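Q: Here's a chain of 355 amino acids. Please give me its 3D structure as tokens.
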Amino acid sequence: MITYSLEHPTCETLRNHAEKAEAADRPAVASLEALRSDGIFALRTPQDHGGSWVDAETMAQCLIQLGRACPSMAWIAGTCVTAKDLVVRSFADASVRDSFFADPDALFCGSGVPAGAGRRVPDGVRVSGRWPNVSGCEDAAWANLAVMVEGTFSFAVVPVADLTVERTWQMAGMRATGSHTLVADDLLVPTEYIVQAAAFTVGDMLLYALTALGPVVGAAKGALDATEAMFASDRKPFMTQYTRMGESSGARQWLAEATHLVNRAEQTLLSIARTIGTPDLPATERPRLQMDLADAGRDCRAAVERMLDLHGASGFRTSNVLQRHWRDLSVASRHPHLNPYLAVESYGTTLVEHL
């Protein structure tokens, strides 16, 4: 397992292709190949199928570093983790897993929204549905999709080649994720490729939330990289007598506050990742940790607002990487896993129930 740095060739590839990928509403081929070569798509492939199956903390650290270079590519890596984890926990049959993980580095995509319906037939299950917001779907080999099969919440794993992609992803941020809509029209899914969903544990739900927060923290750190570079340059606050940004005590305070917020979000993320390994984590802990996740997302947003104030209007120039990280972070941090008002609602309910 590699340790990424800003100078790592993969991070450089992701940065170099981020703008072009955003314009195409789809990840760049070079970026996908770089992640595949580094084993990123095998982070949650079982070890007995050639993957690394890393722990939650290692996975989170990896997503953070990728997000510094390109939040969209970190997001695709995270959704691949989620999709593969769901496949492993849902499908126990060894021969079926052999089919899914024949290529340990294959990109998986998926949706946990039961937007499809299935009916059983003698040779399998006929599935029809439309699943929006499926990140990386145009480049994935397999899709793990939630389906209601005659009233039962289930997961179906199907080759993306058997589905239709509708290019519906038109967003202000995270555009390079290519989170378009997958469509199945009376698709026959073999019986062994569709199973009733198992109950989710607290650790499961926290892991999936971390795959959303990791790229958000990475985006904030990438924005901080750009801001630190500005302080190291000869840029000065406009309409002042200062000769450099660092001469301004106000600018130094804004930089300190932004750095503190980003570091706090990162430490929250890694702390929760370490918690996932706790045996028998009680369900009552999830609302508290969900609050922490939501707060980390808000810390990242607040930090980038400080950075934008430091950059001024130039921070919104389309050539400035800061504005892309700001837009990506603004969209990604609104994911349901990081929803702050629902986190407060859940935590408050739990507190009252245990008075």
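Q: Can you summarize the key feature?
A: The chain is about 50% helix and 15% strand.
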